Amino acid sequence: xxxxxxxxxxxxxxxxxxxxxxxxxxxxxxxxxxxxxxxxxxxxxxxxxxxxxxxxxxxxxxxxxxxxxxxxxxxx
Amino acid sequence: xxxxxxxxxxxxxxxxxxxxxxxxxxxxxxxxxxxxxxxxxxxxxxxxxxxxxxxxxxxxxxxxxxxxxxxxxxxxxxxxxxxxxxxxxxxxxxxxxxxxxxxxxxxxxxxxxxxxxxxxxxxxxxxxxxxxxxxxxxxxxxxxxxxxxxxxxxxxxxxxxxxxxxxxxxxxxxxxxxxxxxxxxxxxxxxxxxxxxxxxxxxxxxxxxxxxxxxxxxxxxxxxxxxxxxxxxxxxxxxxxxxxxxxxxxxxxxxxxxxxxxxxx
Lengths: 76, 265
Description:
Chain A is mainly alpha-helical. Chain A has helices spanning 20-48, 53-74.
């Protein structure tokens, strides 16, 4: 079995993950962005006592970053 | 007579089902309360492993040019993972990973399948320990092959630094880090575990719910029957999920390996 020649494939061997992989990548960028910058915002909020504003700003920055990454890495 | 409860000769059915239904009594030693090293879950994993080893060894011990049923099944399983997943995503050089990924696929598939085998109906993967270990293996594997190919510094630069203007990199790098190195193993394990956990719980709800309604009021008997019919229908839905989750786990592992081996993102 292992010795059989694998079938030819025409396209570029290094392309973005197709199908399911792409969807999960996009989702993890968006959630990851909001989560990590929301967390940083929360820390800043605890430090400077901004009454929750820093969390919102952080989440927005994260969402923007996540969308940027999705467009940059998946949208061609 | 309204409100009258008709006692049926049914044992008291525990309802609703909960997390405690996933923690089964010890088998060896029988009924012990301090040691839980061998339960139905452990037994099922061992049986799965034994079936897999026996199946692949026996079906390929005496291979024929015109394959018989067992050999055909083994060859098509391997061929499916190798050609449709591995070669498709990793290219020809990725064929060296095909044996592992096929084993992974079969192992997850069989372990999931216990969730709908009549009389067993509990998947070891509904305990998060098993998906966690499988996800950790995938995690180490994709990082390992990436580091091996590019070296430590270049691999992490590839993975963490997207081609973007310098001033937004501080925003993007933490996101890349979280989504690649934290979310990947976490979601890989969680997806498989949650699907199997929920599947078992749903079957329990509809089966035990039928008994619970029958116990409460005999007039509910038709609804009970409906509930049990739903159990059968949902078992077929589970059959789909069993295959799908095994497939998704392998595809995502391969896709992470593809990402780790890619020259530039």
